[in-house]
């Protein structure tokens, strides 16, 4: 089957590491990665997927940042996030306070999701990634390492501390003009953690990690047809379809079974929840006997009136534009596949990568509510309540994220492959 198999073990990300045969996870093209030389990245020649990049990448730096993040998780979770003084009454919150407040108001499932995204999954992400990088650093390569790195990568987009940072900033600015508010030690730890999350993601070269975990095929017999692992890109002969990938442990398929229909079902569910997310209030503010609800759009206008134009633009894009864009794009993909279209395939694949990258940022408005919900509370005088739109909006975000995960972009290229290999 293969002519040569190599487990590379270079000390860190280098300009021209050993390459090999890889399969693009977005379009399924089998390709031999050429030397990077003076270029900072390698692109799939067919769909433009970034196969590898070296600029600013360092596994040793990623390990150091990951261990630092694990250390900061303790104070970030348990020390005060924000402190506020309301008419001489002192309130302070920790990271879990807003989540607990949502649960107390009768939304336990929403609280469970937020708790996973802000508390459990960041811990799992940094723990699994730290174990993988430590094992590679000391030169060990246990059989389970590929699966653990896959789990770490799958968890990454659901660990939301970097997204929470934006909601934290907006929530702070909404409270600061009216009440004396102070960022606590836990809040500063969360801010640093959010930046470390983004830096860790930027310093990782995943192709180098997969190369170290192995196996890596330097060449394959051209007369044998190969398909690729949709997660790590390892080529496998077609008779291996349905079996576990030798590198990351996921099932290898030419196209994920029933992926398109599952994506359609999730997209239709997202469309069903979409109007409820914008008709009903996202939150209710109670002040001196007066209860006033704010929809997502009225919340945006409130930020504009308060001259927070940048935050208004962020909320408008994250809460209105991005969810609609994801639903529209997923529908476009389904129609394209149904009609076996071979037009604009590169554009569609680019669009898929964009909505997969930006979809998680729609959580910003939800996190904004959870930030100031535990602070704005004075019995009988002041309170914030979760509106019916928040669970509906969160459902749209979660459903579209899962739909994007389930979707197999290689199906877009299925008719193109059939025509050119007939």
Automatic annotation (TrEMBL):
Database matches in InterPro entries: PqiA-like (IPR007498), PqiA-PqiB_transport (IPR051800)
Top-rank taxon: Bacteria
Major localisation: membrane
Alphabetical keyword list: Cell inner membrane, Cell membrane, Membrane, Transmembrane, Transmembrane helix
Listed transmembrane segments: 61-82, 185-204, 263-280, 308-337, 358-376, 382-403
Localization of this protein: Cell inner membrane
This protein's GO CC annotations: plasma membrane
Keyword Cell membrane recorded: yes
Keyword DNA repair applies: no
Pfam families: PqiA (PF04403)
PANTHER family attached to this UniProt entry: INTERMEMBRANE TRANSPORT PROTEIN PQIB-RELATED, INTERMEMBRANE TRANSPORT PROTEIN YEBS
Official protein name in the record: Paraquat-inducible protein A
